[in-house]
Amino acid sequence: MQPRINLALFILCGLLLAHIGYAQQPLPAFKPLRYNEDYSYLAKDTARTSYENMKFIPLGKQQYQYLSIGGEARLQYFHAKNEEWGDVPADNDGYILSRFLLHGDFHFGSRFRTFVQLQSSLSGSRIEPSPVDENPLDLHQAFVDVVALDQEETQLTLRLGRQEMSYGSQRLVSVRENPNNRQSFDGVKVMLNRNNTSIDAFYSHYVAVKKQIMDDGFNKNTRFWGVYGTQTNLPVLGNLDLYYLGFSKKKAVYNALTGDEERHSIGSRIWGGYGSWTYDLEGLYQFGQLDALDIQAWTASLNTTYQFVDARFQPELGLKTELISGDKGTGKTLGTFNPMFPKGAYFGLAAVIGPSNLVDLHPSVNFSLSKKLDLTLDYDIFWRMEEQDGIYAVNMSPIYGDGNTNEMHIGNQLTSALLFSPNRFINIRGEWTWFQAGDYLKAVSAGKDFFFSGLTLQLKI
What's the pLDDT at 23? Predict the structure, then answer.
């Protein structure tokens, strides 16, 4: 019954979108963080469409007192064969996931605003859905912004409440867009923006998802704090990120190790582009303690692309490589890298493994078949970094331990994806993945090849 309800709700959202009509003038693109969207320019538009009237609802006579409403409906069908390489029960029919988001952005003058967002994530026919898949209805975001300083070149803002956070390449801090539940934090943040410099300082508690309605309360078990700075338009380097991130979790689990964890990450990222080239280099070091064990972990990544803009279909070639530390099994230190809060589909929508104890080589090619249709092909080759450590899921749950094997090759993953965007409101994505089990997986599991296919329909307003 639930898949039919999900489909009916999705169709209803599409009919609503068709009814309200499109704006007559080009509208800004939707932001990954919806609270970053700014529709204040509509105050000067006296001939707003029905859709624009929803994005700018005056709350008084003052120009910048208004309410903006937005949301999303997303429906996904997934089918997988040989999940966890044949070690879990077969699901022959596949399953449907749906996500609904609704937000209100209240602006009371130029110095005060409140943003509230509800999230409903449903799982139909999913065998043992995880909290990442299902959360019927909860308060996803609810925060207040107070602009303490607002000058021509400098702005200082205080944010208090439940909020999404995303930084850099989203390798460490992400909204977790691709899984069914986006993630958020209860905390306080101070944001300074001056010319080409931005600095965020924050302290928060991670919001743990629970499966009942409106029950995602305050979580004392996982704390997250830090400072993240970005400087753009630098000579030679292009753009530079520098950051410190602190993480604390009770009862963390790593291979054969468990305990209370406190971890500190110091890192840097250089990113930008020259002509048809883009580049993204990042490295960071982690230290801290897991009970009595010292933490010494690290990661380094390189992501570069080159696009042939004058060629047919404008092919874009990409190469990404990552080195991510694992534990050496000495019993004196913990070497397993913790990505903390990364984007959920780290190596594709199938999200087979996470970024810990890993060496990854990842070539790709993207084709712009038309202005509205893109085709992507990518290939991942995975090895373990350390023989004494296992592999982990994206959320750092151990999948398999070291298995008393010296085999290092985890496997190879081939993914193809087709993205169709007929307009700014609608996205349709089809994806197919084949994961060929390597010698390590054959030693510690049933070792069957994993197949995955998915179809995503998304509406945003």
Answer: 52
DSSP 81-110: ESGGGGTS---SS-EEEEEEEEEEEEEESS
Q: Do residues 118 and 102 touch, judged by C-beta distance below 8 A?
A: yes
d(CA 39, CA 29): 11
Which is nearest to 34 in space by CA: 130, 112, 116? Answer: 116
How far, in Å, are 198, 323, 325 from residue 257 at the CA level?
A: 38, 22, 16
The CA distance from 390 to 126, in Å, is: 27
Per-10-residue mean pLDDT, the chain, length 461: 53 54 69 94 84 90 88 94 86 87 94 96 80 90 96 94 95 92 96 96 94 87 97 94 97 85 97 94 97 94 96 96 93 92 81 92 96 96 95 90 92 96 94 96 94 95 93
Around Cβ 312, how many Cβ atoms within 10 Å? 9
Q: Could you say which DSSP state residue 31 is in?
A: P
Q: Kind of pairing, strands 65-81 and 450-460?
A: antiparallel
Parallel/antiparallel/unpaired status of strands 426-437 and 409-423 = antiparallel
Handedness of CA 45, 50, 54, 55 (dihedral sign): negative
What backbone torsions phi and psi does residue 407 show, to the nearest 5 degrees? -70, 135
Counts for the chain of helices (H) and strands (E), in that order: 3, 22
Query: What does the buried/exposed string (b/e) look like for 321-341 if buried means 16 or more CB atoms within 10 Å of the residue's CB?
Result: ebebbbbbbeeebbbbbbbbb
286 neighbors 298 (Cβ within 8 angstroms): yes
**CB 266, CB 166: distance < 8 Å:** no
Which burial class, exposed, middle or buried, applies to 430 when counting CB atoms under 10 A from its CB (0-12, 13-18, 19+)?
Answer: middle
